[in-house]
Design brief:
Chain lengths: 285, 479
């Protein structure tokens, strides 16, 4: 039986206004289980309860009722925090520190020895492509660079579970792709990733399972492949068929009892087009 | 040895103190890189440099004036650093949402608070050390150029004070207040003498010629604030060389015939001085006049009738041999650092619930209110008297059925004011208790006991404030 590293039972969060008036249920009886090694994404429009759920899983917000457990313990437990990493929606960094100092500081919070901190910081900055700018104060960084430092700090302790809140928010397609590649790399390393996003493509690219939240409730949850598959429909992706032969194929399909809805040429995503153009340009340079 | 040190370092890093240390280091680094810190340090340096321009009435007053000015400037700028940096540190973390990243690391909320507090405490300690070093060197240079002597002396207080009525014509009334437990007011035409009995003084700590400092309330006729006094000293030894006494301006005489069986001859040395109201002056007493157990009696009487004399236990003190100026100034700076700790703890505690700008106002209000607690304490007995008078007036008016307008506020208002004053006294720290400038100004040693009292108060108050702050922080959620 596989192990649930993130689990919520009837998790509910109600925000109350001044003097207890104006109640707003942000998360409503959420039951969720994320198993070790999974990449799980939560989709939902703004205000659907994604970030509130994540903050309860991180101990930043206290549940009104129900429970949230991470790695079998309460999220506020220090032992839990030693094994998790978190990338907030925006990289909130100390602007007076350089990237190296930032990672060193967070490494110190984990009680990492100096040599290990240095080594890990160098390795992560190399991984997120900030090796050249590592000694510049973070205040001089672009949003994308700051985001990459944020990602590096989330990984400083080589965490077992990584929480990513809108990980590609505000990033250009290249960095966005790098971040998604990094998430896939984390998956290959056996890490558990719990991410929230309102960018459907992000979730689709990296997640094993997807939850859809709306008005504080989990409306759907399941394997990405199963959820986006349209049952009763079949798609052939054919290479090298001539125009005049298409009719014969269509007739064959209808003869087999199928209903052909459309014949189109497949399109690549705009992201793929952008990356291929920029990638080619970079190779030329 | 080296491996055990490494093991200790590793243990500390892995202990809860490791995270506190990390945050402490971040706080110091953050502060020194902020413009506001640099600006405050530059202003503080300008203020300290301005002491060079201080006018002094007498050259020998220059040193204590510079010391006092420097100490007050250091106090003020330290408070500004405590308020302007510490007051916004945690609110900035919250408002700029760095708190999300911090609290998802293995960092408890108490460690966050302790790390921030200890960082600012160390920063202020560094500021105090730097200021101390600069001032100590500067004052030494001024003293070397003839601006006064660099020394501090322990002020020994009398073990006993009594007012002896020599005749029935003098009027002695005792008065007490919160700040002065006993004030004896001597008036009338008689020859009443006030005695200060010093016992158990450390003779090794007294110079060859011992100085006693007097500061008396003197009210002459026609509201003149000066008058002539006779100072009397009773030598506690058999031998009193007349030449020594005369050299110091004393006139020694037998009070009564010496008796062979008496332990000491009844001799009294006297001299007349012209004293101004509460202006300290010093007299010199040969150390040889002190008893073996370090005892001496000093008395004061009015040289002319019509003079009113106010005496307190601290009106006469005996001064020790000069001690190190630097050590005393260091104690004054240490006392100032303790004051900062009180303000800092309240500001850090306030930062757990208040926004940055509101917390700045809170921190500065604490400093201002804390500096005025003494006035509130002194006003309480007066307020009590006003309430009693107003109640009596009210009772009499009831009796006479005369409810005309009163000169004072209604009793309810006075009682409310009294309640507010009492709550303020209980809640607001008395920051005057940390002010060592009066001692510095008169070149007196800051007693170690006073520093210990300040330390105990600062520890208790800071711990209480930080625990309250922690309680708020633990309840707080971060959306």
């Amino acid at each position: 039986m596989s192990e649930a590293v993130i689990q919520t039972n009837n998790l509910t969060k109600v925000f109350t206004g001044f003097l207890g008036r104006r109640k707003n249920t942000a998360v409503d009886n959420l039951n969720l289980a994320v198993e070790r090694g999974e990449v799980v994404g939560v989709l939902g429009p703004n205000g659907s309860g994604k970030t509130t759920t994540m903050k309860m899983l991180l101990g930043l917000l206290y549940p009104t009722s129900g429970t949230a457990m991470v790695l079998g313990k309460d999220p506020t437990h220090i032992a839990t925090k030693e094994r998790i990493g978190f990338l907030p929606e925006e990289s909130y960094l100390y602007r007076f520190l350089t990237a190296v100092e930032t990672l060193e500081f967070y490494g110190k919070l984990f009680g990492m020895p100096r040599a290990l901190r240095r080594e890990r910081a160098e390795q992560l900055l190399d991984q997120v492509g900030l090796k050249e700018a590592k000694n510049r104060p973070v205040r001089e960084y672009s949003k994308g660079m700051a985001r990459r430092v944020g990602l590096a700090q989330a990984l400083i302790n080589d965490p077992e579970v990584i929480f990513l809140d809108e990980p590609t928010s505000g990033l250009d397609p290249i960095v966005s792709r790098q971040v998604k590649d990094l998430i896939l790399e984390l998956k290959r390393q056996g890490k558990t990733v719990f991410m929230s996003s309102h960018l459907l493509a992000d979730i689709e690219d990296v997640c094993d399972r997807v939850g859809i939240m709306y008005q504080g409730q989990l409306r759907a949850m399941g394997s990405l492949k199963d959820m986006i598959r349209i049952p009763d429909k079949t798609q052939f992706l054919v290479h090298g068929i001539e125009q005049e032969k298409r009719l014969e194929v269509a007739q064959a399909i209808e003869a087999a009892g199928g209903l052909l809805e459309d014949i189109t040429e497949p399109k690549r995503t705009l992201e793929d087009l952008f990356l291929s153009i920029i990638g080619k340009r970079r190779e030329e340079n | 040895m080296r491996s055990s040190l490494a093991a200790l370092a590793l243990g500390l890093r892995r202990s809860p103190l490791g995270a506190v240390g990390a945050l402490c280091g971040l706080t110091i680094r953050e502060s020194v890189r902020k413009k506001v810190f640099v600006i405050l340090v530059v202003f503080a340096a300008v203020m300290l440099a301005a002491t060079a321009l201080l006018p002094a009435i007498r050259p020998e007053d220059r040193v204590p004036l510079i010391e006092t000015w420097a100490q007050r400037a250091i106090t003020f700028f330290g408070v500004l650093i405590a308020v302007f940096l510490a007051g916004v540190s945690l609110p900035d973390d919250i408002e700029e949402r760095r708190i999300f990243t911090l609290l998802t690391k293995p960092l408890s909320r108490w460690q966050l608070l302790a790390g921030r507090f200890s960082g600012f405490a160390l920063l202020l300690a560094g500021f105090a050390l730097a200021a101390f070093a600069i001032c100590a060197v500067f004052v030494r240079v001024v003293a070397h150029r003839g601006g006064g002597t660099l020394a501090s002396r322990t002020e020994y207080a009398a073990r006993e004070i009594r007012v002896e009525e020599e005749d029935a014509q003098s009027k002695v009334e005792a008065r007490s207040s919160e700040t002065d437990p006993l004030i004896g007011i001597i008036s009338g035409p008689g020859e009443t003498v006030a005695f200060w009995a010093f016992r158990g003084l450390d003779l090794e700590d007294l110079p060859e010629t011992v100085r006693a400092r007097l500061s008396l309330e003197v009210q002459g006729p026609n509201m003149l604030s000066f008058g002539e006094l006779e100072i009397l000293v009773r030598p506690q030894t058999r031998e009193v060389p007349a030449a020594d006494a005369a050299a110091l301006g004393w006139d020694v005489r037998f009070v009564s015939e010496p008796k062979p069986d008496a332990p000491l001859p009844l001799r009294v040395a006297s001299r007349k001085v012209f004293a101004k109201h509460l202006v300290p002056f010093e007299i010199e007493i040969p150390r040889g006049w002190f008893g073996k157990n370090g005892s001496i009696d000093v008395a004061v009487k009015r040289a002319r009738p019509g003079l009113t004399l106010g005496v307190r236990p601290a009106s006469v003190t005996v001064l020790s041999a000069p001690h190190s100026f630097e050590w005393n100034f260091a104690k004054a700076i240490a006392s100032t650092w303790l004051l900062w700790m009180v303000v800092l703890s309240l500001t850090v505690a306030g930062s757990t619930v208040l926004s940055g700008p509101v917390n700045l106002i809170f921190g500065l209000s604490v400093f201002i209110a804390g500096s005025m607690v003494g006035f509130v304490r002194e006003s309480l007995p007066v307020l009590q008297e006003r309430i009693a008078a107003a109640e009596q007036e009210h009772a009499e008016a009831d009796h006479d059925h005369d409810h005309g307008p009163s000169d004072d506020f209604p009793v309810a208002v006075l009682r409310f004011s009294q309640a507010v004053s009492r709550v303020s006294l209980a809640a607001i720290p008395d920051l005057n208790a940390f002010d060592a400038s009066p001692s510095i100004l008169r070149g007196a040693d800051i007693p170690a006991s006073r520093l210990a009292d300040s330390l105990a108060f600062a520890l208790a108050y800071s711990a209480g404030a930080l625990l309250a702050g922690l309680a708020f922080l633990r309840m707080r959620e971060f959306r």
